[in-house]
Amino acid sequence: MNRRFILLALLAAILVAGAVLVLAPGSKQATEAPPLAGATIGGPFSLVDQDGRPVTQDALKGRYALVYFGYTYCPDVCPVDLARLMQGLRAFEAKDAARAARVQPVFITIDPARDTVPVVKQFVSAFHPRLMGLTGNQEAVDGALKSYRVYARKVGPEEATDYLMDHSANGYLFDPDGKPMLLFTQVDKPDDIAALLDRWVQ
């Protein structure tokens, strides 16, 4: 009886340990594919950051990238979306600073004609101290838009300087190998974003 009891106790301990590993924060990625697994989103780009330094996709290797495409002259959607994403990141930082440090937030402009380096630098500084702002010439930005499957189009006369941009407005999380993991939409609240980051960031 004692031997049988010991075997049952060991089996129970193994089952409990397995449950803890599966349910631990950030452990889901090991046993479950992320929602965007296999999607052809992301790829090469060659831009400059808010300090004028060249940046390619290689700069994000080894880190999770929280990416949003928008433009600084956007009157409503872009700043609201970006604020929600950064609030979610801050909430995740408050819960687990070590894992959150592995997340690099990135803003990429879709309007390089107006979003020069100084403009982007001032813009990103209002949202998060680690937010990387990327811009470049039109050809370079178009290349990034193509890699990330982002739609963007100028609204109004071609010669206009006071114009709006029609564009897709989603945030994305990429893994340290640059593979897409998650899509954040406009219905996701900061708490939702924090919970998803907690679930998938290792």
TrEMBL record:
Cu cation binds at residues 74, 78, 167. InterPro entries: SCO1/SenC (IPR003782), Thioredoxin-like_sf (IPR036249), Thioredoxin_domain (IPR013766). Residues 36-202 form the Thioredoxin domain. Keywords: Copper, Disulfide bond, Metal-binding. Transmembrane segments: none annotated. GO terms for molecular function: metal ion binding. Coiled coil: none annotated. Belongs to the SCO1/2 family. This is Thioredoxin domain-containing protein.
